[in-house]
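W.,

You were right to be curious about this one. When I first looked at the sequence I had no strong expectations either way, so I just let the prediction run and decided to look at it fresh. Below is the sequence, 413 residues in total, followed by the output.
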Amino acid sequence: MRILIWLTALLYAGVSFGQAKGTAGLHWSESLRQALWHWVDSSRYLGLDSSRYHYAQIRAAVTGAAGATPDSMLDPLFTDAALSIARDLHDGTYLPDRLHYDELAAHSPAAGDLSLAGSLDSIRTALELNSFLQSREPHSASYAAYRNALRRLPDSGDPLREIMLGASIDYQRWIDHFNFTTYILVNVASATLRLYEGDSIRLQMKVVAGKPSTPTPRFSARCTEVILYPYWNIPQQIAVREFLPLFKREPSLMDVMGIEAIDRKGKVIDPQTLPWSTLTRNNFPYRLRQLTGCGNALGVIKFELTDPFDIYLHDTNLKSAFASASRYYSHGCIRLEKPFLLARELLGDKLDTMYLTECRKDQQPRHIPLDRPVAVLVVYMPVEADAVGNLAWYKDSYHLLAGKPPRDPGDRR
C-alpha cells in the first residue's frame, strides 16, 4: 500500500519511473542497496520497526535468495524503504498510537514526502545515502543516550526494556523535530515537568497526574495565559458522579467546600432551595463551581492550555501528594509542585507572588495572557535521559506497554 501511495505522489509530481534520472528512476546500485540494507537491518537498534521498510524483500534482494522480488520492481521498493526510514528518523513513528492530540504538528518543520524524494534524487553513492539518513536523526544528548542504550541491548535482552526504550526514543524524535526555543515537557510516566530553553533545563518539578482510571492524555498544545485565583468549573461528569450523591445527603457541604450551583441563566442558587430528592445524574440542570482561594482544588494559579480535553496545569490545595513516589491521583489534570516558579518564568515581572501567597478569599479570577504562547508537550516516556546521558527507568503505571491502553480522555481535573 505504501508503495502505491509513493508511486501516485511521485507521478502526480511529474516524475516517471521510466526516467533515467530523478528519485523515481534512481538506480539502486549494489553499493546503495547494501548501504540501505544496513539501515533496515539495524533499525531495531534505532528504536524502529524493520517491517515498515520491506525487511524481508530487501534482505532477499541483497542476499540473492530464491524467490526474491523481480529486479524490475526493486528500485521503487528500495526508494520507498529509504523514504520511510528518512521520515521516521526525523518525525518518529506510531505517533497516532502515542498521542491523543497534536495541535503543533501543523507548525512542525518536518519535510514532506516529495521534499524527501527530492533529496534522494541527488544521491549516487553509499556515503551520500548514509550522510542523508544520518542528517535526519536528532542531535540532542537525550536522543544519543537512548540510541546508545538500544545498541547495548543484546539480542537476548529483556524485550520490555527494548519496548520502553523504543517508546522513549520515538517521543524524543517527535520532540526534537519541533526545534523549539522554549517549551514545557510533562512526562506522565515519571510524573515530572521540565521547562526547557534550547537543550538546557531552566526549571523542573514533580507533578501529580491522572489516576490509571482517569489517565492524563498525551498531546501537544500551547499555554496561552495564566489565571490567578481561578474558579474550578467542575466538569459535569465529575459533578454528577462524585458531588451530587454527596450533596444530596448533606447540602450544607456545598458551603463548607465553597461550591456553588449555577443555573442555565448564570444565577447562583441557594443549595437549601434545590429539590435534592428529585435530582439524578440524568436530570441535573446545574453547573457546579468552586470559589476562588487557597481552598480551591486548583489552588491559586492555573495555566490555560489549548488542548480539547479540559486539561491544564495548576496549583493544588493538596501539597502532601508530592511526597509520594507514585503521583497518580487526579482526574487527568496536571498538578504542579512549584507553580509560582513556573509562572515567574513565563510572566516575569507581571507576577505578584505576594498577592497569591496572601490567599485572599472571594477574588475574581485575573487573566494574564503570555506575550508569546509556550509549547506544552505531554508525553509518556518510560525511560528518561538526564543532561549527561544517564537513564532513569519508570514503572508503566498506565499499562500502555503491556497492550492495555487506558480509557479515552474526557473531562478532567
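Here's what jumped out at me. The longest strand covers residues 366-379. And, maybe more interesting for your project: The chain is about 35% helix and 20% strand.

Coffee later to discuss?

I.
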